[in-house]
Amino acid sequence: MPTLEARGVEIAWSAQGQGQPVLLVHETAADGSVWDAVAESVTRRARAITYDRRGWGNSSAPEDYRRTTVEEQSEDAAALLESAGAVPAIIVGAGVGATLALDLLLRRSDLVAATMLIEPPVLQLLPMATEALSQDRRRLELAAESGEDMIELYLSGALPALGAEVSRLPERLAGAARERPGSVIAEMGISAAWRVPLPRLAAVERPSAIVTGLSTSPLLRDAAAALADRLAGSSAHEVDSGTAPPHVGAPDQVGALALALTP
After folding, report:
1. CB 75 within 8 A of CB 103
2. Which of 30, 31, 46, 109 is the most exposed place for a label (fewest CB within 10 A)?
3. In this model, does residue 180 exceed pLDDT 80?
4. DSSP state of 217
5. Which pLDDT tens digit goes with each residue over 31-90?
6. Is residue 120 part of a domain?
7. Residue 150 within any structural domain of the chain
8. What is this structure's pTM?
9. How distant is the alpha carbon of residue 247 from its chain centre?
10. How many structural domains is the chain composed of?
11. C-alpha to C-alpha distance for 96 and 28, rounded to whole angstroms
12. Do residues 32 and 26 make contact, with C-beta atoms less than 8 angstroms apart?
């Protein structure tokens, strides 16, 4: 697996197939392997690129890694796209990865052909989410005070705003969170802290597919709908992925939707 140096860390990545580049960006509590089945589907007609974001899988993290931002993470993706000669790319992201894809679309549109945003956790578009986020933060504070395992708390689904949907990841994938607990803490809440540039959403000139599943939580479903209302050139899609996130439970459908975005 090749690596790329990106502002002090080594990013592990891989590519397969030929044609239109499709960058697959994973969520918190997983690594690039979460996309294996989608990548296999995509490579029938395109070039699938997967990577472990900083702090996950075979990628490194800075010493004393305690905090990151959406912009820092999306710049890692931008560096990878440019280094791999994979521009413009279709950016497919899930969870936090969807927020990174949206950030690239709005700030670095020269790198982006289209985006697919799977269960985007843009809760700042929902006034009612403020209370849910506050409750999750208080729950974390209580866990820290009592010595409770915050990673297990996160994986259990007990933080429905800050950890939206992570409990739906299969254990074989969510085990990455136990291996890299510092990365979970560093990323927790970064989507909620990201400032959505609302005027730019209406001015986007690239197509986007916003994807949810039948088991997507009401909070994330509302966030996806709010984003679809504001993001120019977007279309909403729902897939039947059972109890798993769309890219895990319905990889062929997700791959087909990604290929449909090919210019």
Report:
1. no
2. 109
3. yes
4. -
5. 999 999 999 999 999 999 999 999 999 999 998 899 999 999 999 999 999 999 999 999
6. yes
7. no
8. 0.97
9. 11
10. 1
11. 6
12. yes
Angle at 157 between CA 238 and CA 235, to 5 degrees: 20
CA pair distance 12, 141, nearest whole angstrom: 34
Give the CATH number, domain containing residue 79: 3.40.50.1820
Residues 123 and 133 sit within 8 Å (Cβ to Cβ): yes
For residue 249, what are the domain limits? 3-127+169-260
The answer as to whether 151 is a domain residue is: no
Contact at 8 Å (CB) between 214 and 238?
yes
Contact 115, 89 (CB under 8 A): no
Distances (CA, A) of 68 to 92, 179, 194, 221: 20, 18, 11, 25
Residue identified by tokens 């974001």 is 53
Locate 27 and state its tokens.
């969520």
112 φ/ψ angles, rounded to the nearest 5 degrees: -115, 130
**What are the φ/ψ torsions at residue 176 (nearest 5 degrees)?**
-60, -30
CA-closest candidate to residue 245, choices 157, 180, 185, 177: 157
Helix (H) or strand (E) run with residue 234 in it: strand 234-239
Residue with tokens 């490579």: 43
Contact 166, 197 (CB under 8 A): no
Task: Show Cβ contacts of residue 90 under 8 Å, excluding neighbours closer than 6 positions.
Answer: 20, 21, 22, 23, 46, 112, 113, 114, 115, 116, 258, 261, 262
Phi then psi for 25, rounded to 5 degrees? Answer: -115, 120
Q: Is residue 235 part of a domain?
A: yes
CB within 8 Å of 41: residues ≥ 6 apart: 251, 252, 254, 255, 256
What is residue 2's predicted lDDT score, i.e. its pLDDT? Answer: 85
